[in-house]
Amino acid sequence: MLRIAICDDENRARDMLRFSLEKILEENKEEVVYEFSSGAGAVRWLKQHPGEIDLLFLDVEMEGISGIETARQIRKFDQNLKIVFVTGYPDFVFDGYRVQALDYLLKPTNLVRLSEVLHLVRKLVCDSYNEQFTFQNADGTYRLYLKDILYCFSDRRKVFVVTRNKTLSLYAKLEEVQNQLGAEFIRIHQRFLVNAAAVEQINNKLVVVDGQELPLSRSLKAQASSKLAKAMLGDKRL
Fold first, then answer.
1. Which pLDDT band holds residue 81 (cuts at 50, 70, 90)?
2. End of a domain among 84, 99, 127?
3. Between residues 138 and 232, which one has the greater pLDDT?
4. 137 torsion bin: left (phi>0), alpha (psi -120 to 50), beta (else)
5. Cα(69)–Cα(80) distance, rounded to whole angstroms?
6. Secondary structure class of 91 (helix, strand, coil)
């Protein structure tokens, strides 16, 4: 499902873009789920909800912080969000590339161009599904890229997913999460699961991930140490 947000400080501009999108979105598969009236509001919300949005239509000329500055701030904590600028002027296009913008649309938006952008985003998001972990909790739906997950740990009935920027939780068993994440994630303890690519050091008792020391259990030490050592040496046959 493609989840879309619009950021524009003009109500009429947001309404026009949403109406255009609703004409071409795939029913029950795609929707505009959030609208922001300022860049600051978009940055604040997106930082608290990583992975919940696939595509952001971002106005360039806004009061307060501009669309370009909004994108710069977003890129500090999210390199994966697809950003498409919406503008009345094409001159900024090179600035857009500096913040890894996917494309840009001129106002008023043309349905043909809008359809082209959606087609591209659908393909990119679909191709990346196998590289993502999607889950729900009380705060919403999250979609995290596997490469961004450092490790997971269980506490009572919850599993906590740790990235460099945030820790998120869901009701699940660690075994269930391990099966969804795949072979690159290694069980090092009854309560801990690590991304092999994120491991910095292994010793007899600990595994170090992003400077954090995690326990290595005696029962899993031989198997986990072997797999992690192969990963650290570049051997993908885990």
1. very high
2. 127
3. 138
4. beta
5. 17
6. helix
- Tell me whether residue 188 is exposed, middle or buried, using C-beta atoms within 10 angstroms of its C-beta: 0 to 12, 13 to 18, 19 or more: buried
- In the chain, the percentage of residues whose pLDDT exceeds 90 is 54
Residue 178: is its pLDDT beyond 90? yes
Q: 178 in a domain, yes or no? A: yes
Q: Which residue has the tokens 């986990």?
A: 224
The parent domain of residue 179 ranges over 146-232
Dihedral angle of Cα 42, 44, 49, 52, to the nearest 10 degrees = 10
CB hemisphere CA count around 234 (13 angstroms): 0
154 forms beta bridges with: 159
The predicted structure's pLDDT at residue 80: 86
- 175 by DSSP, 3-state: which? helix
Instruction: Please tell me whether residues 171 and 202 are part of one structural domain.
Output: yes
Query: Strand 185-189 relative to strand 192-195: parallel, antiparallel, unpaired?
Result: antiparallel
Cα angle 228, 230, 231; round to 5: 65
pLDDT band at 169 (very low <50, low <70, confident <90, very high): very high
